[in-house]
Amino acid sequence: MTKIIECIPNFSEGRDQSIIAGLASTITATPGVTLLDYSADYDHNRSVFTFIGSPVGVKEAAISLAKYAAKHIDLIKHRGEHPRMGAVDVIPFVPIKNAAMEECIAISKEVGAAIASEAGIPVFLYDNSATSEARRNLADIRRGGFEGMAKKMRKPEWKPDFGDTLHPTAGAVAVGARMPLIAFNVNLSTPDINIANKIAKIVRGSSGGLKYCKAIGIKLQDRNIAQVSMNMVNYEGTPLYRAVELIRMEAKRFGVSIIGTELIGLAPAKALIDCAEYYLQIEDFDYHKHVLDNRLYS
């Protein structure tokens, strides 16, 4: 049976089109992988790539991408709204077909060791690959950013899993195995970042909001609007529509409305169909029975 692994690396570059094109070419030039999608955001100054392939293929592509990023992305010059600690900031592996989480964990460790030795970038294992509970949450690893990472790494509890010296321009990277995550943003009818921050605090699980939601406020300078930028780490436990409606309700307190939403990368079909079921108020809906594509696939 053919095994399919998904990899969704995030890079701290969303403005230089030649570098973004080079990252895409690095993926497409790797045997055994298929580039599904990539997007870049100027304000975040970040790009997200999604590719799938064989275990060997995704492993080779991830290592090549880290080496390319180390050579072409300089965090000393990087400025953007999204938190970051590395040129390639995070590399997650996701089991898609005929593959187990344990296999993705093993791949993450092999890739982490190779990135440290071949690209000179220290690696923290996170999520299901984490070597301690303190390293499971990406935000905890990234806290302090590139500028504070050298000092942080001197603490025994934050010694990298692979490598021991912060790369002078490429920083550090988190590598791990996880289940599908949806990067989902909600744009507000205000340029006030303080309002977005207040709403994000209410929404995110770590401050008492939606359990499987991570959220921060961001200012989109090119559109002069504020945004609640989210990672939905379990779209069944916390569906997208629940986050949208909570943000809509809280925004009204400030006389603000939602003017649009944004999906970064790919999302499982069920996450979007769950929203359709909710907003259309479909009675006795059955995801497997009523969706034509599911019937055809089965």
Please tell me about this protein's structure:
There is one protein chain. The protein is α+β, with helices and mostly antiparallel strands. It folds into 2 domains: 174 residues, Formiminotransferase, N-terminal subdomain (Formiminotransferase-cyclodeaminase, Chain B, domain 1, 2-Layer Sandwich); 116 residues, Alpha-Beta Plaits, CATH 3.30.70. It is 36% helix and 24% strand. The chain has 10 helices and 11 strands. Strands 1, 2, 3, 4, 5, 6 and 7 form a 7-stranded mixed beta sheet that branches. β3 and β4 form a beta hairpin. The longest helix is centred in the first third of the chain and has 18 residues. The model has no long low-confidence stretch (mean pLDDT 95).
Q: How many helix segments?
A: 10
Low-confidence stretches: none
Distance between the termini: 17 Å
Q: How helix-rich are the residues, as a percent range?
A: 25-40%
Rg result: 19 Å
CATH level 1 class label of the largest domain: Alpha Beta
Strand content: 15-25%
Overall pLDDT confidence: 95
Number of domains: 2
